[in-house]
Hints:
Blueprint: E1 2-5, H1 10-13, H2 17-31, E2 35-37, E3 46-48, H3 53-64, E4 69-72, H4 77-80, H5 87-102, E5 107-110, H6 113-121, E6 128-130, H7 144-153, E7 162-166, H8 175-184, E8 189-193, H9 203-210, E9 216-220, H10 224-233, E10 236-239, H11 248-255, E11 260-263, E12 279-281, H12 284-296, H13 303-311, H14 315-328
Parallel strand pairs: 1-2, 1-3, 3-4, 4-5, 5-6, 7-8, 7-10, 8-9, 10-11, 11-12
Helix pairs in contact: 2-14, 7-10, 11-13
Amino acid sequence: MKVQIYTGSMSLVAKSGVGQAILHQRMMLSEAGVATTDKWEDEGPIHLNTVFPDAALTAILARKKGRKVVYYGHSTMEDFKNSFIGSNLLAPLFKKWITFCYNLGDVVITPTDYSRGLLKSYGIKKPIYSLSNGIDTRFFAPSAKARRRFRDKYRIGDSEKVIISAGHFIERKGLPEFVEMARQMPECRFIWFGHTPLSMVPLAIRQAIETAPQNCLFPGFVSQAELRDAYCGADLFAFLSSEETEGIVVLEALACGIPALLRDIPVYSGWLTDGENVYMAGNDGEFVKKARAMLDGSLPSLTEAGMRTAQSRSMRATGERLREIYKKEGME
C-alpha cells in the first residue's frame, strides 16, 4: 500500500501547525512501514490536510476514482475565531465550509478527543477518530549543546531566566497576555517565536507588540532547529492559547524537557493535567504567580512526566495507531 499525502497549497501552511502535521504524517507512516508519495496516484488512500478549494476538489476527484479519502480535521470554527481581522464575523460560514470539506472524506482524523467532540457537534456523518499529530522525539529532546547555542545567540547569561512561547501573532494564542507577563516580570527575558503580517491582525495585537517592554523580544519565524534550541535553552515554556485542536508546540516543548505553563482549557483534558505533567493557570495573575513559583523551585519539577507524555505521542506510536485506523476502515 502506498499513501498519497496531498501537498497542494503547502506554501500557505508551511509555517503553521498544519504544515508540521503534514511532515509528521510522512514520518509516522514511515515508522509504521507504510510508503508515502506526494504525487497523484490512481489507487490507495489519500491524505488531505487543508480546507482550501484545491483540497476539496482533490477529494471529489479521488472519490470518483474509488480511492479512500482521509481528511484531517485540523481546523474548527472555535479556533478560527479570534485569529485574523474579520475572523469572528466569518466564523459561521467557515464552520459550514469545513463541515462540507470533512464530509468529503471516508474518514476524518482530528488530533484530540476535544476537537473530535466539536466536529461531531457539526453534524459530520463520517467516522471521526482522534489521533495526535505526533512528535519527533529523536529531534526534539534535551540537549546541553542546544541550550548553549540558544543562550549564546541571544546573549543570555547562565543565571538569567528566560520564558518563551511560539505561535502566530493572533489573539487566541495569548500574545497580549504574554506581553503583560513580561511587563510584570522585568527580572526575566521573554521571547516569542513566530510571525504574522501585522496588516492581518487586530489593532490590539499590533499595539501589544509595539508597546512591549524591553525584556520582551519578537525574533520572528525561526527554523525547527532554532526552535528546538530555544526549548532546550529556556527555563519555562508559557503557552497561553485560549483555543487549540492540540498544540504541536506543547508536545515539542515537553519532549525537550522544558517546564510548561499552559492555560487551563478543555483541549488538554485527558492527556495533560495540572500538577502532573504540566502546570496550568486560568487568568493573568495566576500565570505570573505560577511562573515565578516554577522558576524559583517552589513548585516541583514535572519535566520527566512531561517527557513521558511526549514519548507516548512519538512518530512510532502514532504511526502504529494510524495503521490500526486503516485496518479498521478497510484501507489495507
